[in-house]
Design goal:
Elements (H helix, E strand, L loop, with lengths): L6 E2 L1 H8 L3 H9 L5 E4 L2 E6 H12 L2
Antiparallel strand pairs: 1-3, 2-3
Length: 60
């Protein structure tokens, strides 16, 4: 369990992992990354989920 901030905006996640927002949103659509949704858009994504997927893809 993470003790830090676990929910980031798309822009923050994009900056932290060097991925495009489109790549991140695709993972959300596929159910690989949890997201908080507002009216017609994703407001925040779970950074722990994203980190796990990035590690799986890169091996780091």
């Amino acid at each position: 369990m993470s003790l830090g901030i676990t929910w980031y905006s798309l822009a923050e996640a994009e900056s932290k992992f060097g991925m495009t927002q489109a790549e991140i949103l695709k993972m959300v659509e596929e159910g690989l990354v949890r997201a908080e949704k507002g009216v017609d858009k994703v407001v925040r994504i779970n950074i722990d989920d994203l980190k796990l997927k990035v590690e799986e893809r890169t091996g780091f």
